Structures are given as structure tokens and as C-alpha cells.
Amino acid sequence: MRCVTGWEKAMREGLGEGFSPVPVQALGQVDSTNLRLKEWARAGEIRAPYVLAADSQTAGRGRLGRTFVSPPGTGLYMSVLLCPPESTDPGLVTILAAVSVCRAVEEETGLRLQIKWVNDLFLRGKKVCGILAEKISEGIVLGIGVNILTPPGGFPEAAGNAGALDRPVDRFRLSGAIARKVLLGAKNPGDPAVLAYYRARMFLLGQTISFTEDGLQKSARVTGVSDDGGLVVEGTDGQKVLRTGEVSIGSRQVSFSRLE
Ligand code: BTN
After folding, report:
1. pLDDT for 1-15, tens place per residue?
2. Are 128 and 232 part of one and the same domain?
3. Is there a single domain that holds both residue 161 and residue 182?
4. Across the beta sheet with 24-30, what order do the strands follow?
5. Is the minimum distance from the CB of 61 to ligand 1 under 6 angstroms?
6. Is-contact 158 148, C-beta < 8 A?
7. Higher pLDDT, residue 64 or 1
8. What domain range includes position 226?
9. What tens digit of pLDDT does each residue of 199-240 get?
10. Best residue for ligand 1 mutational test, from 68, 81, 128, 161 (most atoms within 8 Å of Cβ)
11. Res 251 pLDDT > 60
12. CA dihedral 131, 74, 2, 4 (to 10 degrees)
């Protein structure tokens, strides 16, 4: 596993003041940055906080066991090992990740991403970033994959739903800026400003979604996000908070699980 020249230095610059003791590593190719951090943490080789970024992944993983295609040179694949306070609601960590990426991308590129609950980030109707948060006994591994440029063959596996930032951006620096926001936010997981930002960027708001409950297909209108990150919906049987499962808008499936 080779280091990428200049990446760690640029990541440190993006991380900025106050985080010099945090170890950062940038590798050319890995199986999966989430897998690496989980394995290293379980073996006692690293402990939180720790940041790992890679140019490409051979076994990039998405939520619900899906593959996250991670070709070289066009994306940013990174994971942060965090150890938030024991009492932290896992949903808030996922929300923190989504908000951190939106803020860092806006600062570095000027682009305003939108959030599809719970943790997919969209630009002009296409998914440009996915987030996979996984709990282990040593902490939480927060995996973030951003499509920076459209690869030469596009995203054939995504059936037209994936896109990229397609803006000139220093992805090395961006990885540091994202890590900074995640690490800062993890110090104060219930920060109302993070939740307010999340709500303001969420594009399911007001839409009618379908979901399955107790084996029955239901539909309801999305009215908000609860303080612990659940999706608040209003249906014919009243208001409820959805926390895990699958919802769809029209014919499009939207899966959600806050933490795997
Ligand atoms: C999803 O969209 O379902 C989540 C995708 C998460 C992908 C990132 S890329 C870095 C980290 N390593 C992985 O194997 N997955 C996450």
C-alpha cells in the first residue's frame, strides 16, 4: 500500500489548526478505507481519532451491502475513526458527516449540495456522495465517498442516478477540510446548528414518499427531521418518525439505515 505524494501534507493543511496530533494517512489503492480502519482498530494498531484517504478502492462498500465503485484519479474515498461520547445517538453522527461534507464542498468549490435523508448528497439531481457509518467497539468508522470528476466511462452501474462535482478542486485539501469539520462536530454531537443546516439542505421535505410498515405499503408526506435524525412523516394515520427501512418517491427507491 503506497502513500500518495503530497496528499498527507495537503490533508494536514485542510485539517488546519488544533488537529496536529491526529494521524492522517493517504494511500494509492486499498480494498476499502472503512475495512482498513476497522481491521487496524480491532487489532489495536490505531485508535480514534484517525483519518485514512485513498485514491481508489478495490472493494468499496455502500450501505445495505452494496458496492461503491471507486476508480482511481476521479474520486475521494476516506474514512474517519471517531470515538464520540458513549451516549451519542448514532443518527447524529451520520447527520454530522452529511453536513461536514456539504460545508467543506461549498467552501472549497462554491457548490451547494442537497441532502437526501439520511446520508446521500446530491448535485443537480444526481448523487455525488455516499456515506457509510459503521459501529465497532473501538468507535465509529465514518466512510465518505465523493465523486469529484466523472470517470471516462461515466457511472454505468448507477443507472443514471450518479454524478460528480466536476469542478476543479484539490481533493487532497478537500479531504482535510472534511475531516476537520467531522472532528470538530464530534466534540459536540447534538449541536442544534448542525441539525438546522441539515434540515435546510434536505430535499425530501414536503414530498410524498412510500414505505413499508408491518408488511403494509403506506404513503406519507415528509414534514421534517427529528432531533435524533429520524424522518418525520405525516400520513393518514397521523405523524410518525421513520428510523430504518426503505422509502421510495414515485418509482425511485431510497434506502435508509442510519448506522450499520
Ligand atoms: C452509500 O452510498 O451507500 C455509501 C457509500 C460509502 C462509500 C465510502 S468510500 C470510503 C468508505 N469506504 C468504503 O468502502 N465505503 C465508504
Report:
1. 677 889 999 999 999
2. no
3. yes
4. 24-30, 50-57, 75-82, 139-147, 126-136, 120-123, 114-116
5. yes
6. no
7. 64
8. 208-257
9. 999 988 898 988 888 888 889 999 999 888 888 999 998 999
10. 68
11. no
12. -100
How many beta carbons lie within 10 A of that of residue 219, not counting itself?
A: 14
- 7-15 vs 171-186: helix axis angle to the nearest 10? 40
Q: Is the CB of 131 under 6 A from ligand 1?
A: yes
Torsion sign over Cα 246, 247, 248, 254? negative
pLDDT recorded at residue 245: 61
Query: Within this chain, do residues 128 and 253 fall inside the same structural domain, yes or no?
Result: no
Query: What digits encode the pLDDT tens for the residues 89-143?
Result: 777 888 999 999 999 999 999 999 999 888 899 999 999 999 999 999 999 999 9
Task: Identify the residue whose cell numbers are 477540510.
Answer: 177
Residue 96 and residue 164 in one domain: yes
Residue 136 and residue 243 share a domain:
no
What does the alpha-carbon distance between residue 90 and residue 95 come to, in Å, rounded to a whole number? 9
Q: How many domains, the chain? A: 2
- Element (DSSP H or E) covering residue 51: strand 50-57
Chain centre distance of CA 1: 24
